[in-house]
Amino acid sequence: MIVRLLLAALAAGLIAGMAMTPAQYLKTIPLIMQAETYENGEVAHTHDGTETAEASSHSHGAETSSDDSMLGFGRFWDTVLANLVAGAGFALMLAAVALLMGVEFPVGRDGVMRGLLLGVAAWFCVQLAPSMSLPPAVPGFPYADLGDRQGWWMITVAMSAVGVWCIVMRPEWLVKAVGVAIIVAPHVWGSPVPEDLSSEVPAYLASAYAAASLATTLFFWLLLGGLLGSFLSRVPEEHTA
User: For residues 147 and 129, what is the distance between their CA atoms, to the nearest angstrom?
Assistant: First the structure.
């Protein structure tokens, strides 16, 4: 029983994590690499206000350094590894939440649709709700303290999950209203703000990255939820119970 549930969740997470890599290379990583040129001072401003790249030798050296990675496998393979680990972890968490809430996944289209709805709810809690006050930022953009951002993000995700549960799972209108208030509360309190707001990175690049990040994560959560619903629907009902 446990092996089937774990395999269903892990398979969904690994597939979604693998599919996330080309989506990121299509949408977000080009913006990250473009922002790195501003962070490293490789974009010079001319007298007419336009931007030009520096000498080709310097650009070549920066291009090599930008491909360096924290884990030493290169940008591409580090991205693949991170996505696989994140996909597996999120899939296990999503499967646990679905089982604890008693969500059933019928065989066929209904199971996939419930998985998609579960994925949308998770995307809202993990990605969209925190991004309303703390959007994804490219390298070189102003950041608040890492600990403060992580703490606020975790509180916002938890409160958003509770709020969504109140809205979706409870029939009482008063509870639904409380759920909305819980979701809004972290944003009323306010997210951490960096002390220095100056940045060489253009605002249009930062906004494009935030939008692309939300789009790619929506793709990830939809794929994860749909696969999870499909795979869990194949686990016998008495096992999930």
Answer: 19
